[in-house]
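Q: Structure for this?
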Amino acid sequence: MQDAVAEAAKLLGASRMPVIAGLGTDVAGARAAISLAQKLRGAIDHMHSAALLRDLDVMREGGMMITTPNEARLRADLLLLVGPGLNEAWADLDTRLLARRDDRAPRRIVWLCPGHAGDAARAQAAMSIIGDSPADLPTMLAELRARCAGRPVTAQDAQALNALAIELRQARFGVAVWSADALDQLTLDMLCGLVRDLNASTRFSGLPLAPADNAAGVQQVSGWMTGFPLRTGFCRGYAEHDPWRFDAVRLVESGEADCAVWISGYRATSPSWSRDVPLILLAPAPSNPPRVAEVTFAVGRPGIEHDSVAYLPTTGTLAVLNARASADVISVAAAIERIAAALPTEPPC
Amino acid sequence: MLTRLAGGRVIDPANNRDAVGDIYLRDGRIVAAPQGGEADETYDVSGMIVMAGAIDIHSHIAGSNENMGRLLLPEQRYADAPAHPGHSPQPRGAWSSDETGCLYAAMGFTTVVEPAVLPHHALQTHLELADIPIIDKATLTVLGNDDFLLDLLRRRESTEALREYVAWALTTSRGLGIKVINAGGAEAFKQNVRSFSLDDEVPHYGVSSRAIVKALQRAVQDLALPHPLHVHCNNLGLAGNVETAIATIAAAEGLPLHLAHLQFYSYGKEGKRSFSSAAARLAEAVNAAKSVTVDVGQVMFGPTVTISCDVLRQFNARAHARPRKWVIFDGDANGAGIVPYEYRSKDFYNAVQWAAGLELFLLTNDPWRVFFTTDHPNGAPFTSYPDILALLMSRELRAEWIAMMPKEAIEVTTLPAITREYTLPEVATMTRAAPARLFGLKDRGHLGIGALADVAVYAPDRDSAKMFRAAALVFKNGELVVRDGAVLRKTIGRALTASPPGERAIERRMRDYYEGRYGLSPDFLAVPPGAIGQPDPFELVPCRS
């Protein structure tokens, strides 16, 4: 351990542009990683930044109406599930959101273009499925939005869409559910626009499902620590956010980054870049990293082997997750703090 | 170590002191002058002004809604600060937690209250607060749109049940006080209600907004919490809403009640545009209602972002977003709306708002009951405080500003006729002594023996704004943290909390409620000290005796 810390500190201390990526870690790990990047004048990126930024770009370009998993579960009289990947994004989707509850008023569920997810869903009586292939989704949402705005459409599914448009406008509190992992930005923009439009006369909101590996939690930490979401760099001595410039894969492939820290505390994953770069890996043991890392730290899994604070998909909030099977393993936060303490003291130029 | 601040003008209204003299600090406290012997270090502050560290009672500095504001407006940080090589641009807004603490400390603020914590999001707020250096913090827990409370009122349950619930919510979320935001309005909006006033009923629950406010006021009073109920009234921002504010003041019925950012409720319907300042009338009502305290929520010009748990109001304001983007969040109880906005001095409505805030400051006659806020960032960012203080202290400066405003706006206010100028002791009362009293913080806001050694020293300047923008020296817990407006070291602050003593029989009931309604244990609400990431993150403030 001592040797690994010293070696990691040596690599990072000698680096001119380190990137701290992966960031699959809890709040404490994110705090430590971002502090380290600030100290080293490096950059931070999360392995799910692409999906995070898709939601974020729609929000920060046009705005968004959103609600909580609890409100979607308790209040929605119409759930509009959009596209594939929902069960993958939220393992408890069926039990927490879709399962029928006898003590509640009847509720409609419509799933647009679920792809393979629809195979199981089709068996459920209360569920309507419109469209199939996710490739049809952009057009379908555009047509649906047009119908809701009272404009004529000549869609293949015109009748189904007409009926759905009426249902959406008659919902008292509808909720659209999606995973940005499975949608492109224009589709998302159309969906969020539809939700905004519906609020002219009724109530409707959105429930974006967060990517895995505490992506939403790490984004929150980045927000309050740097003022910016992920893909932020500190190269000039202050925080700058640039989704292109601070994309970890681009930084490594282009040769701009000369050292990388890959944090994957929830499960062993590897970075998707192909160029060789000195790598410091923090992942749970036993892991068989397919890539040779200069230094490897076997870290505990947050909320399993050590207590943690992270984003809870069930509530949409940061919450404490106590260890289920406490083990004598180091956390990402502790490992990074030890590396930071071992860094050479003079500031990088 | 004994530290002496020698020869400054000590302005300490809580102890009726305004005289040249010395202040001694030891072990984080103000101590008496030693009997013989020398101080270990002496700061010559002759010619300077010495006050206790300032306390901001209402500033939205942390939590998931503020963070959403950061994520919504990445362009706001470096808005007009082009980066030059070797120069760090100074962020103009959307500050990080770190910047927030440093900017506050540079102005001599040492305690700040974050006034809107949704109980389900309390942990995130406290994580953010812990990352704000130097200053101490406190939070207000938002109730009044939560199903449990509304259901208690619908069933006409005992005041004891209500009291226990309030104590439980406050303790669980680690708040210092209770706030209600457009009581019932967020729940009504979820049921597609688009306007909601004091005597409107929340559909389904059949409980009026007034009944919610009264019930919470009573519970806070009975629990002897350090801070009275903090109220964000209905109808924020609407022409003619002075009637709502006056009705809410009357609803205090002689018991303590704090009305937040009153400027946003000081509008009449006079004039060609049916929008005018009714601040003079409102100030009279405040002057007459001795149990009521208010803060102003002053507007200043420039880009900002409005962040409010009054989701109904924010939804209705979305068309005015500048730039045109906004987030409306339907939360588990109160939600939030984040709507960017730019106040413009040439805009009729914005100029009226600016003038109305100053009228409230200047026409209310008791600096112990009127508090200095911009409702950061809603009226203006907290960095504008020095400019506002300067306006309060100089009628000449006000006249210069008024001359630049649209004439028709100024005509629907009484501002040009007001000659009052705030004195430094009045400023010290409003920003130090009175906030400490309002929150039951006995060892803050003053410089008496035993007080916390939070001290701000200012170098007088003809330009009061310059004086307040960069404190000459700031001590936090006796440690020098700022010199000439520059942060020297980032100490760690704590969050002040209150928790009414005694067993809470309601714990079991809350567990059953959360399991029944949400299918979840209420454990997800917990804010354990060990999860915060700082040693000893909380400080308990005793309830009133």
